[in-house]
Amino acid sequence: MSGRGLVKRIDWFTVFLYGLLVFIGWINIYSTTLTDPDASIFNFSTSYGKQLFFIIASLAVIVLVLFVESNFFERFAPIFYVGCLVLLVGLFPFGKTIAGATSWYDLGFFNLQPSELAKVATALALAKYLSDIQTDIKNRKYQLYALLIILLPALLVLPQPDPGSALIYFSLFFVLFREGFPLYYLGILLVMIVLFATTLMFGTVWVSIALGILTVLVFVFKRKTAKIPLLPLVVTLITSVLFSLSVGFVFDNVFEQRHRDRFALWLSLEKDERKLEEIRKTIGYNTYQSEKAIESGGFFGKGFLEGTRTKGDFVPEQHTDYIFSSVGEEWGFMGTTTVIVIFSIFFLRLIYVAERQKSDFSRMYGYGVISILLFHYFINIGMVIGLLPTIGIPLPFFSYGGSGLMFFTLLLFVFLKLDSNRLRDGL
Amino acid sequence: MKKLLLSSVVVVIGFTFISRLTYLQLLSFSPDQTLDDPAIKAIYDYPERGYIYDRNGELLVGNQPAYDVMVIPREVKPLDTLEFCKLLGIEKEAFISKMKKAKTYSPRLPSVLVPQLSKEDYAGLQEKMRHFEGFYIQKRSLRYYATDSGANVLGYISEVNERDLQNNPYYVAGELKGRTGIEKQYEEVLRGRKGIQYIQKDRFNRDIGPYKGGKLDTLPKQGREIRITLDKKLQEYGERLMHGKRGGIVAIEPKSGEILAMISGPTYDPSLLVGRKRSRNYTKLHYDTISKPTWDRSILAEPSPGSPFKTLNALVALQEGVIDTSTKFRCYNGFYVGSTKRGCHCGGGVRDMNSGIFKSCNAYFAGTFRKIYNKYPTTDEGMDVWEGHMKSFGLGGYLGTDLPTGRPGRIPDKTYYDRAYGDNRWSSSFIISNSIGQGEVAATPLQLANMTAAIANRGYFYTPHIIKNISNENIDPRFTEPRYTTIDREHFDPEVEGMANVYKYGTARWLQIPEIEIAGKTGTVENFVRIDGERMQLTDHSVFVAFAPVENPKIALAVYIENGYYGARYAGHIASLLIEKYIKGEITRTDLEKRMLEKTLEHEYAKPYSGEPFKINEYVW
User: Quick check: B24 contacting A, CB < 8 Å?
Assistant: First the structure.
């Protein structure tokens, strides 16, 4: 394989968007963590200096990935997957605890987070399994295996505890849906989420009444056009009510107080003004500060390095999970929408690239990449702008963190490598 | 469908985010937020508040240093609490609770531990302060009063409240603001403008350097000194004379409208409202609802003016041409309204204008008043004309002074009576009491003094004012433009002659001052109060207006003493003494002075509250 050919075949548009996001991200990390304006940007004792180093290290990852044979990823996907599972299990005895989560291996110079590697491996493994000629997604048995591939690492990550990362694995359902996994599963999932939230907000009694009325309405209006499957309807109703009943139990007994508080804040469950204020100051503190910082940016923002709340370090974890609030404060509405538009174009481009794959494996892996990145982006920004409860996951390409950046780069460029090879797959 | 699923998810997420950001950054955004931003702290540099001098350049109000003991709880090292408390002059329990409060407020930021130490306490503490880590002394400036008088005119300053903060964005909680009197009226002049320095803070509230490199910072602008029109000596002397008496005195220089003295009794020492005991003293003064020391009677009390008002009725009658100086009325020791007789103390007989004034004959002025109204076909028209003349003397409306408070008094008009009696259900006999300054007319001592100044000037006055100059700049031109009354100049000469005769032959002949020719008019005002729902008459108010010298007047004043009985008693005495003091600088009638300094009216004021029947208008005094 010649290097010249590779340069021609790689999707430069995606690479350009990737570079743009990393660049904007670094600018904001610089602004957030700058303390001494005279220090060099290559000063590795500073966060922005370290991040710059990791950006360069990511280039090495890119070069490495591009020079590996495409087949390598497909062929070794199951081995990667099993290896990662072993690494995840190994965390229980050997893991290093940072900020309460036992999610890292201490490699001396570098803290490795295997759950990140596992995301790549799971995406590869899922693609490999689904693209197998024998796998029939319409078949319940295969569906179950596919689900297992996704859920196994998630279950290992959950007790670290790292619920944020565990949640990310669920994004791989998009791959299943794309490949013909029945869409009504998605419907069931949505219904469950809606039931969960509404039960918390209005209580089981009201939800049951509403469900009852809905059922009667369906029965009355549909009777004329189609024969009603009465039994399934009743079963659905009863299941829903039971689910709604269980929500209260789970919320009160399985969730911890901090989780309850997050929901209380998010869904405005707490009616007592004083308690709500209390929650806002403790659990909601980060969100409150980040919302305020974004709000204070206005349309034009305060300007690069002029964000007072950013400088004053008011938003906790601003250079990692809350990096987007710095964009909001210093670059204003123009900056935030620009970033959102770039991300959206980036995702749409990736979807387009995935759809043009001739190889099923490449397409499915592509979908895995998109789903993982999209989920990060959705949950992170949703949390920073106060739409979603606090879940600690980074913004891809933006947030400070070397292993994060290198993992996202790896995830993306494996796909770009597969894409660069798409015309040869037929050969 | 399957292929579009993820793309539509991307688009939906994008739109959701952008609409949320629109809400946050475009709809919730408020452009002026520098001061609300928790990351920016404003540090203020307060200029010294301007001094206040009297008309002769004598200091009335200055500044004095006070010392606050401050504490930064985090930096406090173990200390000898007992010794420290002794030095500060506070109890140990108080010290502990104050320390707790400071810690709750912020362990990192300074709080006031003991406010406003005196210079003496400070001197003792200063040497030992270095033994107590975490504590330091912060100097601040308090008002200093070089006089014990003029409390209500000078006013006081106090911390801004919630409402001030809402109404005026200049102020920040904890700042001082002129609350009454001159301090309020000339607040912006005296205060100057504070300098602001913006500091960038981190979330632990630590300073991390100037905000935007100090580009927005401003320097303080000094407060300016002002000179006011009061005469310190006259003001202080007047307050001494008011000892034990309630009432108001206003003295005006007729040729400029400058207020020479504004005295309200009882009053208080302005320095009571400065320093550590301020709030205790203020509460005491504020809740004294019987003698009301903070209620400035010189500009807020609105009694009926009584007989001094007769002089205006005479002028109006002359101007309207319904009498001349020789027109005579007979006094039957009173006069008749229909078939009821109203009394008079002048001694009876035939009165012309001159003796009508100096004898203060009620019958004469009732007759004059009727003539004014009879000139016009209807009482309504007569009323309009009469009202117009009266208001041209600055009565029945706000004068437009530069005092932050005041009252309009009352000159009743036809709508007033229409409301009281019904349209066309009243006539001049209903309002005849106004002829002698009783009934519905009401005027503040300031308005009476101003009216007297207009007579002294023979037909015009300047809007009374308290400001002489601000850092030697000219004052508002509205205070230097004469306001003419509707009475022609020629009518004033017989009027002034009558008033001069009040001193020569009339009701105030005992109060003459050697070498000074004074024109004046006594007033004895019936008054009523309602106590426990029962209306009762109290001893008459003693009222006196005067100006002197008769030719080229230098001072015009009005004295109103509550329940002082005859006009010539308390008010007359005080008026004469003040005139002598102002013109001569010393008192020759020491008999008058002794009487006024010694006599009080406390026994009169106690009467209605004694719960027992009492006599009013007792002859002996």
Answer: yes
ipTM of the complex: 0.87
Residue of B nearest to A329 (CA): B25
Q: List CB contacts (< 8 A) between A343 and chain B.
A: 14
Are B25 and A351 in contact (CB < 8 Å)? no
- The backbone torsions φ and ψ at residue A340, rounded to the nearest 5 degrees and listed phi first, read -65, -40
Establish if B7 touches chain A: CB-CB under 8 angstroms. yes
Residues of A in contact with B27 (CB under 8 A): none
Beta bridge partners of A304: none
- Residue range A92-129, pLDDT digits in tens: 888 888 877 888 888 877 778 888 889 999 999 999 99
pLDDT tens track for B390-425: 999 999 999 999 999 999 999 998 888 888 888 877
Other CB atoms within a 10 A radius of the CB of residue A317 amount to 16
Residue contact A387–B20, C-beta within 8 A: yes
Nearest alpha-carbon partner for A409 in A120, A47, A73, A31:
A120
Strand ranges (E), B486-576: 519-531, 534-548, 555-561
Contact B39 A348 (CB under 8 A): no
CA distance B126 to B590: 51
Taking the C-alpha atoms of residue A189 and residue A52, their distance in angstroms, rounded to an integer, is 41
- Over range A373-397, report the average pLDDT: 90
Instruction: Write down the mean pLDDT value for chain B.
Output: 88
The DSSP code for B386 is H
CB contact under 8 A, A311 and B200: yes
CB A101 within 8 A of CB A160: yes
pLDDT of A149 above 50: yes
The rounded distance, in Å, linking the Cα atoms of A306 and A37 is: 12
Among B2, B10, B200, beta carbon nearest to A347: B10
Report the C-alpha gap between B536 and B552 in whole angstroms. Answer: 44
Q: What is residue A177's predicted lDDT score, i.e. its pLDDT? A: 83
d(Cα A263, Cα A201) in Å, to the nearest integer? 10
Please indicate whether, in this complex, the C-beta atoms of B37 and A296 are within 8 angstroms of each other.
yes
Please count the residue pairs, one from chain A and one from chain B, whose beta carbons lie less than 8 angstroms apart.
111
Ramachandran area for residue A16 (φ above 0: left; ψ -120 to 50: alpha; else beta): alpha
Task: Tell how strand B111-117 and strand B59-71 pair up.
Answer: antiparallel
Q: Cβ–Cβ of B14/A340 closer than 8 Å?
A: yes
List, in sequence order, the alpha helices (H) in A95-113: none
B477 touches chain A (CB under 8 A): no
Answer yes or no: are the C-beta atoms of B21 and A336 closer than 8 Å. yes
Q: How far is CA B483 from the centre of its chain?
A: 23
Q: Which residue of B has its CA nearest to A186?
A: B5
State how beta strands B349-351 and B329-331 pair: antiparallel
Instruction: Please give the average per-residue pLDDT across B542-551, as a whole number.
Output: 94
Closest Cα in chain A to B198: A308
Q: What is the pTM of this model?
A: 0.64
Give the pLDDT confidence of A35-56 residue by residue, as tens digits.
776 777 777 778 888 899 999 9
- Interchain contact B10–A (C-beta under 8 A): yes
For chain B, positions 199-238, list CB contacts with chain A under 8 A.
200-203, 208, 211-212
Q: What is the DSSP string of A151-217?
A: HHHHHHHTTTT-HHHHHHHHTTHHHHHHTT--THHHHHHHHHHHHHHHHHHH-HHHHHHHHHHHHHH
Mean pLDDT estimate for chain A: 85
**In chain B, what residues touch A295 (CB-CB under 8 Å)?**
24-25, 28-29
Grade residue A4 by pLDDT with cuts at 50, 70 and 90. Answer: low
Angle between helix A47-66 and helix A12-33 axes, rounded to 10 deg: 160
Separation of CA B456 from chain center: 24
